[in-house]
Amino acid sequence: MKRARLALLISGRGSNMAAILEAAGPDYPAEPVLVLSNRADAAGLGVAAAKGVPTAVVESRAFKGDRAGFEAAMEAELARHGVEIIALAGFMRVLTADFVRRWEGRLINIHPSLLPAFPGLDTHARALASGVRLHGCTVHLVTAGVDEGPILAQAAVPVLPDDTEARLAARVLAAEHQLYPAALSWLAAGRVRLEAGRANIASVESAPDSLLNPLPRAVLLSTT
Ligand code: GRF
Questions:
Q1: DSSP H or E stretch at residue 86
Q2: Are the C-beta atoms of 172 and 136 separated by less than 8 Å?
C-alpha cells in the first residue's frame, strides 16, 4: 500500500495529533512525515519528537502582517518533507485563500462543534449558552471560508444538565480522538469524492463511523 505523506499542523497541546500518530501504524493509509507548529512552545512538538516524527517550527509571530511570507516558509518545510496531505490539529492561524486553493482536497480540519452550528472560537461556551442538547465535533475539508468546507464526519455527544465548559470540552475531545483518525484515513485512502460541494465517502462500511452517536457508554462515563 502506498501511504500518503502526511503533515500535522499544530499550535498547542496536540492531543488530536497524538491520536492520529497513535492510529498511524503500518496499515494506516497516511504516514506522518512532519509535525509543523507555528509556535515554538507548542506542547505537541515534544510528543511528536518522542514518537520519532520529524518536527519543524515556523513562528507566525516572526511574520507579523506578512501572511504570504509565513505561508511561503511553511510551504518550504512541507516541500522539504514531500508532504502530500495536511491535517490541521488545533492550528490557530487562518490560512489564506491561496494556500487553501493550492491544497484543495488535501487539507482537512477538525472543529469542536456540529457544524454549521458554532463556527469560530469558544464553541463549548456558546453551545452551553444556547441550550442545545447535542454538541460534538466535525471533520471537514478546508475551504477559503473558515469552518465551512465539505463535511466528512461528525460525532455527537450529549450536553448534560450540570455541564461546565470544561466537562463538555473533555467529552467532545474524547469524541474528536476517535473521529479524526478515522475520517483522515478515508481521505488518505482516496475514498472521498466531492459531488456538488458535498463530500461523499466511497463504500457504505464507513457510514456508521462517520456519525458517532451515541458514543460508547464507557467513553461517555469516563468524561463526566
Ligand atoms: C480541538 O478542540 C480541535 O477541535 C480544535 O482545537 C483543539 C485542539 O486540541 N481545532 P489539541 O491541540 O488537538 O489537543
A1: strand 85-88
A2: yes
Number of domains into which the chain is organized: 1
Please give the backbone phi and psi of residue 176, each rounded to the nearest 5 degrees, phi first: -55, -40
* Residue 118 domain flag: yes
Confirm whether 206 is domain-assigned. Answer: no
Domain enclosing residue 10, as ranges: 4-193
* Residues taking part in catalysis: 111
Q: Give the tens place of pLDDT for each residue, 130-152.
A: 999 999 999 999 999 999 999 99
Q: Write out residues with Cβ below 6 Å of ligand 1.
A: 10, 12-17, 89-90, 110-112, 137, 173, 176
Cell numbers describing residue 87? 491535517
Cβ-contact 170, 223 below 8 angstroms = yes
Q: Which run of H or of E encompasses 21?
A: helix 15-23
Pick from 20, 110, 172 the residue to mutate for probing ligand 1's pocket: most ligand atoms within 8 Å of its CB: 110
Query: Which residue pairs, CB below 8 angstroms and at least 24 apart, start in 65-68?
Result: 67/96, 68/96, 68/98
For residue 110, the ligand 1 atom closest to its alpha carbon is: 4
pTM: 0.92
Cell 448534560 belongs to which residue? Answer: 160
